[in-house]
């Protein structure tokens, strides 16, 4: 039975991309391009086109081995769709294979001014192919980031062949993570400071599939490629 969206009570839909068009909606999404994952030592080259398509009511982001290089796509709503607080839900199937690193996440819109991790990062879902049935949900900020981030790992059977719901509820007091409607992780500092709570400002969304790198791992199973993250929808709700 297909999982259905279950936003919290007293929330209303403020934006959604159901991917029911013939191409990526560039009024909402931009492609970030470049090598090596901005300091994560990733292997892929992010491209503007060719690695992301809208087909059959879904967004498909595909990582490939092309000659001696890997290519993929990283889509962001930066400066187009930004949000402060809300319930964010994404229905997706993940790529499979050692070296893949798909992510559904958010960054502070002010990253260009204050940098990372001061801008704050909310990782709604991260997965690495070397740990095939585990999902990471994580908060990065000045008080905890990188290897010392506020992270949780939860088991999930078959994230590849089956769609699952990945969601986060971000309020003025806490950030709660959900997988298939079940809360799996909560971030709620007892005393909020600039270092542990940069989450009172707008954030933008990111969808990408990385290959290798510090977190994805430096061993890649080229035989498994190409591999795709398929996204059925992205929906954002805020309080009425």
The CATH topology name reads: Jelly Rolls
Q: Which sequence of SSEs, written as H and E, runs from N to C?
A: EEEEEEEEEEEHEEEEEEEHE
Strand content: over 45%
* Rg for CA atoms: 17 Å
Structural class by SSE content:
mainly beta
Distance between the termini: 30 Å
Main pleated-sheet profile: 11 strands, mixed
Silhouette: globular
The helicity comes to under 10%
The number of helices is 2
Beta strand count: 19
Low-confidence stretches: none
* Domains, number: 1
Rounded mean pLDDT is 96
Task: Assign the CATH class.
Answer: Mainly Beta
The CATH architecture: Sandwich
Task: Give a quick rundown of the structure.
This protein is mainly beta.
Reconstruct the topology from this structure.
Blueprint (H helix, E strand, L loop, with lengths): L10 E7 L12 E2 L2 E2 L8 E3 L5 E4 L2 E9 L2 E4 L1 E3 L5 E2 L2 E8 L6 E9 L2 H4 L6 E6 L7 E7 L9 E6 L8 E7 L4 E5 L2 E6 L15 E9 L1 H4 L10 E13 L1
Parallel strand pairs: 4-7
Antiparallel strand pairs: 1-19, 2-8, 3-4, 5-6, 6-7, 6-19, 8-18, 9-18, 10-15, 10-19, 11-12, 11-18, 12-13, 13-14, 15-16, 16-17
